[in-house]
Amino acid sequence: MEQAVERLAIPFTFLFKRDGDAWTALACEVDIAACGGTQDEARTALKDALELYVIDMFERGQRHQISRPTPLDALREFALDPAPEQPITREDHTMLVFVHEVRRPPTVDFIPALLSQLDYVTSVASLH
């Protein structure tokens, strides 16, 4: 007997900024942040935190409440206070959630999403 598999794609926008020797990564759609010594470390830490968060929401039966966007004032604070040493960068990712059955936690995978230059310029300019 085959297991029913449900696939759910959740888009996330990652913002990165460097402050001294550390990098901070923020997932805007869920107001989760992580840090690392490099941008790659911050990205990996953020993906790990998102995976734990999404699995926890599924296990609690709250999959439709996953989205909790970062408030606009927190986005401005991230972008401007303190002023980042390098321009803030943005990446779009999609988390693919594979739900096999109720008794088994979902598995997740990330894929990068395409980002147009216009979309990037518009979103970053709107933070200032």
Descriptive account of the structure:
This protein is α+β, with helices and mostly antiparallel strands. The protein has one domain (6-125). Helix content is 30%, strand content 33%. The protein has a five-stranded antiparallel sheet, covered by helices on one side. β1 (6-19) and β2 (22-27) form a beta hairpin.
Q: Any chance you could write out the topology, listing elements then pairs?
A:
Elements (H helix, E strand, L loop, with lengths): L5 E14 L2 E6 L4 E5 L2 H21 L12 H9 L8 E11 L7 E6 L4 H9 L3
Helix content: 25-40%
Number of domains: 1
- Return the structural class: alpha+beta
User: Order of SSEs, N→C?
Assistant: EEEHHEEH
- The fraction of residues assigned to DSSP E strands is 25-35%
The beta-strand count equals: 5
The end-to-end distance, rounded to whole angstroms, is 55 Å
* SS summary, helix count: 3
Which ranges are low-confidence, i.e. pLDDT below 50, for 5 or more consecutive residues?
114-128
- Rounded average pLDDT: 78
Biggest sheet descriptor: 5 strands, antiparallel
Radius of gyration over C-alpha positions, nearest whole angstrom: 16 Å
Strands of the widest sheet, in order across it, are: 3-2-1-4-5
Envelope shape: elongated
